[in-house]
Amino acid sequence: MNTSQRLCKMGCGRTCRPGLYKNSKPYDTCCGGCAKGQGHESNCGRCLEYSMWHGTSRAAAYDIQKNGWRPSTGGALGPGVYVTRSKAKAMNYTKGSGRDNGAILELRVKTGTTKRITGQGDSLRTTWAQAGYDSAYAPAGAVGQREEDCIKNPANIQIVKVHVL
């Protein structure tokens, strides 16, 4: 059975961490707290929410609010919804024409199990979702000048506020 499909042996209901091994065996727990038998960690990255941003046109921002997210089919980190922890980076993606100067969406994002991308040559740069990860994180300089995250499941993204520019 694929590690990404196995449930944590401690019964917390989460899946085991994909791609991680100890003594040549796949992890059988979801986090360090469960691995130590102390119960699920309150600061587990699979459960934490982060403040993030998404820049787009004003029309697209309203469409996202009304109809939900439409994950991209490609990009530097593969398919998913692209978000960033940098408001300045989100501002680069505000596009519009005429009086539409764009909008940035203030978000709360559950990243789940995250694959940290180390560079353009990272073997899972665009296939992390198939390997069982919930998101990918590329720090500044890994695939672009600024950091970005790609989220597999749009249900993990909550809009806090739309800032119309």
From TrEMBL:
Gene Ontology annotations for the cellular component aspect, listed alphabetically: cytoplasm
Top-level taxon: Eukaryota
Residues of the PARP catalytic domain: 50-138
Gene3D superfamilies in the cross-refs: 3.90.228.10
One Pfam family recorded for the sequence: PARP
Molecular-function GO terms, alphabetical: NAD+ poly-ADP-ribosyltransferase activity
Listed name of the protein: PARP catalytic domain-containing protein
Record organism: Florenciella parvula
Lineage, top ranks: Eukaryota, Sar, Stramenopiles, Ochrophyta, Dictyochophyceae
